[in-house]
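re: ur question from yesterday

yeah so i grabbed the chain u mentioned. its 90 aa long if i counted rite. heres the sequnce exactly as i have it in my notes:
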Amino acid sequence: MSQYQRVVQYPPFISGTDPRWKRGLAKPVSAYADLRSIPTKANNNPIGGIDRSVPIFFALDPSWDGWAQVKLGSVQAWVDTNTIDLTPDG
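ran it thru and got these structure tokens back, copy pasting raw so excuse formatting
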């Protein structure tokens, strides 16, 4: 019987100069939106969170399957788009 380990590949963080970044406002849908280091909730404790409307930079891509990348201060993280409203400026 052979043993194997299933390896999951997550998309990398995009660079700070990527054109997908937009400036806007983030507001949690409920009381809190978790920020995570990889785009999954399984075995991935939050590295931060958003509990009120805040100015933010965010990037969306259809290949990220319901996740967005955000920059809040010096933190770059993933956020589940079902837990947050992201509204671009303008």
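noticed a couple things. Residues 53 and 69 are 17 Å apart (CA to CA). also Strands lie at 22-28, 33-35, 48-50, 54-60, 67-72, 75-80, 84-88.
anyway ttyl
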